[in-house]
C-alpha cells in the first residue's frame, strides 16, 4: 500500500479535433442565428471539431502519445487505464480495451470505462488515486475524451456554439508527481438527470435509425431525442448552488479560505456558468481560470487540457494550492485540492 502523501498527477498530454469551426462559419451556415452575443454568453469564438471518421478513441491515442513523450515513458510503464467518454466507438467493447490494444499495453493492465462526462476527469482522478494508494496500481493512465459534436443537433443554436471535441491523457502516480492530490470529494443528484440527456441510443429507447422527430422549443431552438437535450437554465440554477457549496466544504475541511488558493480550475462549461460560480465564491479574477475561447467546452477533457496549458506556460508553480472542480451530466460534481 502506498501513502497518499505523494500521489498525484505526473503529467498531462492532449489532442484536439482536426477541424476548426468559428462563430463566423456558424453564422454563415445559419443566417437566422444571432451570434453577436455568443462570445459574451459562452466565452467561445471557435472550437475544434473531429474530422469525419475521427473518434474520441483516435484523439485518445494521440493524447496518450503526447503524455508518454512529455514524461519519456511508454505503454509498458502503465499498469491501469481508465477511459472516460460518452462517445465510445461501440456499445461494446469499451473504449478502454480498444485503447489498450492500440497502445500495445501489457496483458496485466486493468482497463475500464466510466461515463461521467464533465465531472469525469475529477471522478477518474479520484479513482486513480485510490488505485495507487491501495497498491493495486503503480501508474494509472486516465484518458478523458469526447466528440460531443456527434451528439449535438446541427440546428440547435443553444449548444452547437458551445462544445468542442478533444482528449486528454493524464498519468497518475506516486513517483514525485507535479500536482499532488490532497483530498477529493464527490456529489450526485440523479433525480435531476433529465436536465442534460440524450434519450435515444440505449437499451430503454433504441436509436431511431432514420432520425428522431425534430421539434423546436418555445424559443425556437431545435431538439431531438437522438441528440443532447439541455435545460440550460435548470443546470445553471443547480450548479450555482451545488458547486460553490462543494468548494466551500473542501476549503473548510482543510481550514483554507479563497485567499489561500492560487488558482481555481473549474470545468469550462460556459462563460456564464463560470461567472456565476466566481461571484458566489468571490474569487478574484486573477485566480479564476477561464480558457475556452478557442476550444469551447471540451466535456471530460476540459480541466486537464486547461491544466496542461497552464503548466506549459509556467503559470503553475511550486508551492501553489489549486482547486479543481468538474460538474455536469448526472447530475454530478467532484472537487479536488491540489498541491504543486
Automatic annotation (TrEMBL):
Q: Indicate whether Ribosomal protein appears among the record's keywords.
A: no
**Organism for this UniProt entry:** Variovorax gossypii
This chain belongs to the protein called Ketoacyl-ACP synthase III
Q: Which UniProt keywords are given for this protein, alphabetically ordered?
A: Acyltransferase, Transferase
Q: Which InterPro entries match?
A: ACP_syn_III_C, ACP_syn_III_N, Thiolase-like
Q: Where is the Beta-ketoacyl-[acyl-carrier-protein] synthase III N-terminal domain?
A: 112-190
* Residues in Beta-ketoacyl-[acyl-carrier-protein] synthase III C-terminal domain copies: 253-339
A GO BP entry = secondary metabolite biosynthetic process
What are this entry's molecular-function GO terms?
Answer: 3-oxoacyl-[acyl-carrier-protein] synthase activity
Q: Note the SUPFAM superfamilies from the entry.
A: Thiolase-like (SSF53901)
Amino acid at each position: 500500500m502506498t501513502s497518499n502523501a505523494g500521489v498525484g498527477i505526473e503529467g498531462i498530454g492532449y489532442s484536439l479535433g482536426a477541424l476548426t469551426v468559428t462563430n463566423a462559419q456558424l453564422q454563415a451556415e445559419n443566417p437566422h442565428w444571432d451570434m453577436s452575443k455568443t462570445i459574451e454568453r459562452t466565452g467561445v469564438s471557435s472550437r475544434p471539431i473531429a474530422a469525419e471518421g475521427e473518434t474520441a478513441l483516435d484523439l485518445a491515442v494521440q493524447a496518450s502519445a503526447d503524455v508518454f513523450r512529455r514524461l519519456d515513458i511508454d505503454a509498458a510503464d502503465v499498469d491501469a487505464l481508465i477511459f472516460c467518454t460518452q462517445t465510445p466507438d461501440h456499445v461494446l467493447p469499451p473504449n478502454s480495451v480498444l485503447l489498450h490494444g492500440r497502445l500495445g499495453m501489457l496483458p496485466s493492465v486493468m482497463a475500464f470505462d466510466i461515463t461521467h462526462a464533465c465531472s469525469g476527469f475529477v471522478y477518474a482522478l479520484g479513482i486513480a488515486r485510490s488505485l495507487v494508494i491501495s497498491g493495486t496500481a503503480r501508474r494509472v493512465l486516465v484518458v478523458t475524451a469526447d466528440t460531443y459534436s456527434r451528439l449535438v443537433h446541427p440546428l440547435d443554436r443553444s449548444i452547437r456554439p458551445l462544445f468542442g471535441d478533444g482528449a486528454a491523457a493524464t498519468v497518475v502516480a506516486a513517483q514525485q508527481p507535479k500536482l499532488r492530490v490532497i483530498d477529493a470529494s464527490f456529489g450526485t443528484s440523479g433525480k435531476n438527470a433529465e436536465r442534460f440527456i440524450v434519450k435515444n441510443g440505449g437499451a430503454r429507447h433504441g436509436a431511431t435509425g432514420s432520425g428522431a422527430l425534430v421539434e423546436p422549443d418555445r424559443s425556437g431552438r431545435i431538439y431531438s431525442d437522438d441528440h443532447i437535450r439541455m435545460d440550460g437554465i435548470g443546470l445553471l440554477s443547480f450548479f450555482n448552488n451545488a458547486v460553490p457549496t462543494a468548494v466551500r466544504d473542501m476549503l473548510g475541511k482543510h481550514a483554507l479560505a479563497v485567499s489561500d488558493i492560487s488558482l481555481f480550475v473549474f470545468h469550462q462549461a460556459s462563460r456564464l456558468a463560470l461567472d456565476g460560480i466566481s461571484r458566489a465564491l468571490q474569487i478574484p479574477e486573477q485566480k479564476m481560470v477561464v480558457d475556452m475561447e478557442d476550444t469551447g467546452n471540451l466535456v471530460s477533457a476540459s480541466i486537464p487540457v486547461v491544466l496542461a496549458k497552464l503548466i506549459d506556460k509556467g503559470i503553475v508553480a511550486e508551492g501553489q494550492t489549486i482547486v479543481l472542480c468538474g460538474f455536469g451530466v448526472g447530475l454530478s460534481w467532484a472537487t479536488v485540492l491540489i498541491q504543486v
